[in-house]
Amino acid sequence: MKSADTNPLTVLGLAMGFEERGLSAQHEAMLACADHICGFPATLALLKKLPQTQTLIHKLLPLTLPLAACMSDLEEKRSQGQKIVCVAGGDPLFYGLGSTLTRYFPPEMLQILPAPSSLQLACARLALPVHEVDMLSLHGRQATIALSQALLTQKHLCLLLDDQHTAASVARFLLSKGCHNYRLHIFCDLGRSRERAWHLSPEEASELELTGSVTVILECTEKHPRPYLGLEQEDIVDNMGYASSLSVRATALALLAVQPEDTIWDIGSGSGAVALEAASLARQGAVYAVEAQSDRASAIVRRAQKLGACHLEVIQGSAPDCLEDLPAPHKIFVGGGLSQDHGQKLLTALCQRLQPGGRLVISCVLFSSFQTCLNTLKTLRWPLRILQVQSSQARPLAHDLHFQAENPVFLLCAQRKA
User: Which of 34, 84, 102, 173 sits in a 20 to 30 Å window from 295, CA-based?
Assistant: First the structure.
């Protein structure tokens, strides 16, 4: 470990509500000794409200975009021996200024002095051990995917929200995913005299509109089932009494080689069985089940809710027209839709959207579909594997068992060149 710098940047965490209670004597002394007091404009605006800091206003140095220019200026002042104190609310390393500074300065140039974070304060209000709570900031993020992935753990979850992602929108999202096993502990303006708290079900919280600084703890009140490999037939039989074969699903998923962070498309999803089992493997990714028939799509939604597959999104529509707005996939499984006249068009569109190095697995029952896929994939000159899967299941017969053969299925696995 390198020795500490003789003139480090001091990053001072100020307690939530410091603008009302004032600064401690220690913090006041540190700011008085500084040549420059820097921070984001919102924090400096609160600091200027204090009578203690009126003589320090000339030292304030706002951090503005582009940050790289500000960081170069700080380093120049620091290298000249000037004392710099950076101020931030709460713990500077908790989605704060300290985290930003670590991208520009090595550890030995930083002295971090934290105050309690909003996560710590919220957990303290609930007497909830902090180490039992996962953390997710929705600031500037794709909330649907990030929140879905976090909910899969079924742990308590602390959320940092912004104007686009509110407590009410989170509650409505929980309801849309069938996640009734959460209670929302909503804290507004933590640490301040106007602090308020609500402890609500998703139904109750869905109508609550708040302004100000909001922190939410999602308390998981009951563990629900989660998606898994080898789904029971009663969980995946569609409205026509059909469910894909366990042996075919297992082989297809093995050929897909699903990784935890993959984005997966299941085209012609049918009962949704492949998408649901893929969801058990891609827990940090996203799964899209695409199904043209509305009744089947609705049934997949219900199965996903029952099995807790929060990160499985059902797209009701005809491919490839409904795929335009979806993120490019790492893996694609095609279980249906290639026997029609537009089969070649669909397959070509899927190959174009597949990410470099990604895999495409196609299940064909009809020989005409198999021939269409084979001819199209050969023109791409991608590495290609072809398997025929045929299994038999034991059935009762005359006080004994016999094995009844299932229909053979062709599986084609193509991999796009990286």
Answer: 173
